[in-house]
Structures are given as C-alpha cells and as structure tokens.
C-alpha cells in the first residue's frame, strides 16, 4: 500500500498532467456544479480526452453528502470499473471521490454497505485529489465522512488505502470560493491542526506537521479571506489545510469535532461553521490540561506577545481564537443557527457518543461538561 502521495503544487500546475494518464482508459472525474466550469478543471478534461481516455463526469456531489447520495451516484454509473478517479472540489467532493476509488476498483465484494460496516479493502484505483477549499485536508486524511440521515449523525469511513497517489494544490482553483466559505473552511483547517496538536495521541510527527501548518495558517488566514485573488495567501492556506489533514492521518481531532458532528448530522450546519462556533469555548475548557502546547502554538502568531508567561500565552491563544472567529464574521452563538436551548441535551448525547474522538481529548470529559459548553454559546 502506498500512503505517500506525490504532491503537485503551484499556479497553473494542472496545465500538463498528461504524464499521470498513461495506461488509463476509463477515468471518473468527480466534482460539483460550482467547480466543474472552472477553467483549470475544463483543461484537465480536455487533456484526458486528448490522451484518448473515456471520461465520465459526475458534477452533482452535494455539500455534506449522505450515504444515499453516494448510492445514487453509484447506481447512475454506466461503467462501474475505472482506472483513475479524479476528485476536484471541497471536502464533500473529495470524500466521495475517495469512496469511489474503493468502490470502482473492480472488487464486487466491496460495497458502500460493507465499508459502512467496517470492511477495510486492500485495493483502490489510482487517484488524484484536487482540493478547492482550504479546508478539510481530505486529500491527506484516511477518512471519508458521510451523513447518515436516519441516525441524524455523520460517520467516518477510515482506511489509509484511500490516501491518494497524487494531490494537486492549485491556488487559482480556490479564488472563486465565497469569503464565508474561505473563512469557515480555514477555521476547519485550524481545528484539525490544533486539535491534533493537543490530542492525547499526538506524536512527534503529528506535532511537527501541526506546527508547520499552524505557522502558515496564522500568517495567511486573514489575507486569504480578505483578498480572494491573492494566490500566495491562497496557496499557503492550501498547504496549511494539507498539513491539517496530515496531522489527522498521524494523530486525531477531539472535542471540537466530536461536538460539531451532531450540529452537522441533525441540523445540517456546514462543517466549518459548526467548528468555528465551538473552537474558542472548547479550547477554553481544554486549556488547563495542555498549557505548554497552547503557549507553543501562541508563539507562532505573527504579532504574539512573546514576553507573556506560559500560562498567559495559553489564555492569549484562546482569546486569539475567539477574536479570529469574530473578525472573519462567522457565527458565534447557536441561536444564530436557529438552534435553541431545548436542543442542547440532544446535541450533548450525540457528542458524547462520538467516542472515537472523545477519547482523544487531553482531559476527562463527561456529558454534563459538554452540555455546559453548548450552553455557554446558546
Ligand atoms: N475526509 C476528511 O478528513 C474530512 C475532514 C473534515 C471535513 N470533512 C467533510 O468535508 C465536508 C465539507 O467540506 P468543505 O468544508 O470543503 O465544503 P464543501 O465541499 O461541502 O463545499 C461547500 C460549498 O462550497 C462550494 N465550493 C467549494 N470550493 C469552491 C470554490 N473554489 N469556488 C466556489 N465554490 C466552492 C461547494 O460547491 C459547496 O457548495 C463535510 O462533509 C465534512 O464532514 C472531511
Ligand atoms: Zn474538520
């Protein structure tokens, strides 16, 4: 199994990807309606056709896809076995492309049902993932997240086999992202980096990856959101997001992500927006258990006050998170999302059930404490 992706990065780096295509006849290009018309995507399709590939285009992956969306896409495929899957889009598209790289590899025993039941296939088709948000870092994680409407939650299908052969980080593909999506997906990347950095299963590899990513993110997130055409800031955010995904691959997120799952699963709040509301309050809760790591991350902020004590820096980081979410004009209260205090017991039960992530929180946490955090942002 190859889990080391080759990364192509930079302006116009998709202009000549012909060398990836040799021997590929059936290609599945997975995208969505906001992305498919972008010139670099059309250029990829032209190159595929010029190389003689049969290209099937899926351009209807919805945001926050469910298991039923993937089933519908599979049933509509005339050619269920392919040689290359290309995913170009946000995390929603990339997660679907990753699943299709398993489901279109020619093994009839591998089905969406078997993957949801925990099967870990050994093979997938060749894959190229091209993120257009920055982001989920899905191109660097072993995860694909699906909504399960019947259970009003989301689940992760997790296997390193889904890590792609090729990743392309192409800044001009992200310039059409509306500011609100650039802001919320940027906060998602920050959550991946900082949760993995403070997770109980952090290790030296995930720590260094997270530090490199946070340095890029703190220096670029404001500019990237304010100046969509700034390709340098946009490329740096793509790298920060990639590092966030790589941190997940080596460690794992915890409280913010556990508490955001029920907001996505039942109330359909976009993933990055749900994380943005939770970032500062969850980190205020976690702070006492990881003071030196909080201080270490704070030191990476461009105008950090390096004279503060470790304790002082740890508080200052939580304040920075809170100010950043306000500055990016993202929601900070559940009421802004039409979620009422009556919903909080349900949300808390949903969060505590995400034991896969709760067990990574660097201190004990129970349902009452989770409920208190939700109440603090009602
Ligand atoms: N696999 C993982 O490791 C992982 C990690 C975190 C989140 N996720 C999942 O990823 C999904 C969220 O992905 P996301 O936050 O990237 O958002 P998204 O993919 O759902 O996209 C949000 C919206 O932005 C639009 N968009 C994306 N890029 C654009 C661009 N360049 N220009 C114009 N519009 C653009 C999309 O069309 C969509 O309407 C959720 O399902 C979440 O659970 C997966
Ligand atoms: Zn996330």
Write the layout of secondary structure elements.
Layout: E1 6-9, E2 26-30, H1 39-50, E3 54-58, H2 67-76, E4 84-89, H3 91-103, H4 112-116, E5 126-131, E6 143-148, E7 153-158, E8 166-169, H5 179-198, H6 204-226, H7 231-250, H8 255-265, H9 271-286, H10 291-298, H11 310-327, H12 344-352, H13 355-358, H14 367-376
Parallel strand pairs: 1-8, 2-3, 2-4, 4-5, 5-8
Antiparallel strand pairs: 6-7
Helix pairs in contact: 5-6, 5-7, 5-9, 6-7, 8-9, 8-12, 9-11, 10-11, 12-14
Protein name: Iron-containing alcohol dehydrogenase
InterPro entries: ADH_Fe/GldA, ADH_Fe_C, Alcohol_dehydrogenase_Fe
Pfam families: ADH_Fe_C, Fe-ADH
Defining key terms:
binds nicotinamide-adenine-dinucleotide, globular, 378 residues, six-stranded parallel sheet, two-stranded antiparallel ribbon, alpha/beta, single chain, binds zinc ion
Question: Could you characterize what this model shows?
Answer:
The protein has helices at residues 39-50, 67-76, 91-103, 112-116, 179-198, 204-226, 231-250, 255-265, 271-286, 291-298, 310-327, 344-352, 355-358, 367-376; strands spanning 6-9, 26-30, 54-58, 84-89, 126-131, 143-148, 153-158, 166-169. The model has no long low-confidence stretch (mean pLDDT 96). The protein contains 14 helices and eight strands. The protein is 47% helix and 11% strand. The protein has a six-stranded parallel beta sheet, with helices on both faces. With 378 residues, it is an alpha/beta fold. The structure holds nicotinamide-adenine-dinucleotide and zinc ion (ZN).
